[in-house]
Amino acid sequence: MSETTVTPPETRNKLTGGGSAGRAGDKIFSGLTLAAGILIFVVLAVVSLFLVLEALPAMTAAPDQITSHQSFWSYVAPLVVGTLIASAIALVVATPIAIGVALFISHYAPARISRTVGYVVDLLAAIPSVVYGAWGYLVFGPALVPGYKWLHENLGFIPVFGQPSATGRTLLTASLVLSVMILPIITAQCREIFIQTPSLHQEAALALGATKWDMIRAAVFPFARNGIISAIMLGLGRALGETMAVTLVLSAGALTPNLIGVGNNTIPAEIALNFPEAFGMRQSELIAAGLILFVITLLVNMLARWIVSRYSEFSGAN
Amino acid sequence: MKISRVGASVAAATALVLGLSACSNNQAATPNSSASASTGNLTGTLSGGGASSQESAMTSWIDGFKAVQPGLTVQYNPVGSGAGRKGFLEGQYMFAGSDSAMSTDEWTKSKSICGPDGAFQVPAYISPIAVAYNLPSVKENIKMDADTIAKVFNGSIKKWNDPAIASQNAGVTLPATNITPVHRADESGTTKNFTDYLSNAAKTAWPQKAAEAWPSGYAGESAQQTTGVVSLAKSTEGSIVYADASAVGDLGTVAVKVGDNYEKYTPEAAAKTVASAKKIGGMAPQDMGVKIDRTSTEAGTYPIVLVSYHIYCTTYKDQATADNAKAFGKYVLSAQGQKTAADAAGSAPISGDTEKEALAAIDTIKVA
User: Fold this and answer.
1) Closest approach of chain A CAs to the CA of B353, in angstroms?
2) ipTM surpasses 0.85
3) A254 to chain B: which residues are within 8 Å by CB?
């Protein structure tokens, strides 16, 4: 503190009275940020333009021109449903665990342990998806087979637990692999937000006689609500677009409500499986499916923004 | 636009060639160095593209051909049969590899770049498709007719000891294991040939048309590419899978009913099937596109066969390309070329009259 008070006058002049050079720097910097902002819009616009142009032939084609001899919409609908189911299960499984891990790191664990756990969770995010895929179909899927058999025998009257797969290559396995993949993303983001909860709020809650859990409910969660939602959205984005892991883990097939048997497929897996040798109309169909995924992601993000804005009075500014 | 596309494909092809030569260096180094002194003097680049099923055979041909014509570079882009034919018709490739024969429409289009007789095709790569199963307790080849195979793959026969299978396999102890049919998740020429067999030879049990994608109504485990389905089958007891015969390894294979006998897949039987198949006709006079008779009762044939063609122009616009295409085409169909592919990719060598006819067809390539 004392150093700043004895700052020589020249430095003060440099900061406040930089003259024309300072103003130029200001302009350059604001120009650069503007350019960066515009760039992201241009990239997005070019990508969507490409998608729309390439997708149009498939979306407007007559049913008998489509490879599977049905209208494009009935071709893509099961894929959309499959993608949404897989992502939804992944989110439902991953979110509570991620919030729990994040709370443990930020509020419960002793400093040394929390640093180690945080490090391990960050490491999970760095594993390439093909490794998750290989693990899913070599180890995790076969390990789930007895569980699937049990579910079918005991809860078989529910349609989602139909005839179980002999290999474990099912949509439920794929969803669980996805949930492991998005776990570190949600955890890391939540942890950052939880740590930033103003300690005044927390201390006030504790001073009023709240237990630790009461304090987390009263001070941490309201403060972190927006952050948690955007963390979930980041995780959802990854789950919706995940290609390699689903392609490797899932025995793709027609849409079926049975989550523990063969069948179902997602848009990214369908594209990854068939794009390498596709041409003409087939290529256009796959790109159109990609466009649908793009639109879904956009809608999901808009929905998330809307939810966040509804709760804006809780944002951390106060 | 045109220039940039050519540039891109040249770049891609260069990368491919670099990649291929990197792979092949260690194998081909010895024959190369000894043979190059006494061999051909063609130069330039012959670029082709198409079926990925031919990829490993093509790599071996390109390696082997280097020993014969060290000055001539052959490039092959495994973009898929359809894209290969399209690229050929657009003049991007000088030859194409394709798992299915050209349509008459495509042949008509080819006249614009290949002269009045258009393009023609010769069988270059014949691969029997094995129906393989994972049953460690069964040492014999299980026998099935087309109807049984269709019912196994459409899910109506669920157990290995089903009477339909047992009645054809007297003396074989079949376990009560569940059957897990495995099919390709990606679209493929193998699936198309297999479903073509089923839809022709087992019409009632398999009412679907032949297609590159597995019919979505028939559930089953699936995986990507030949290696994917085979490794899935190997790790799943009771599974049954169709795949390139060269890739099935130590899985048991089904002997398929032909006439009154059951035939195991062999390269000879596959080659014989192609030799006895009818020509499609209606295209260039030297065209060798065939329609395989999946219901043939001729002894010694094996009906589930994939034929992959090479498509060339009857007439090329310049002497160098014509010479290069002719030299490469002849090498591929020669006994040596077919043996190289058989060693590398497990294909069935083309021989006898088929080989003679194909070589004669290649010989007719001329310059406008």
Assistant:
1) 33
2) no
3) 216-217, 219
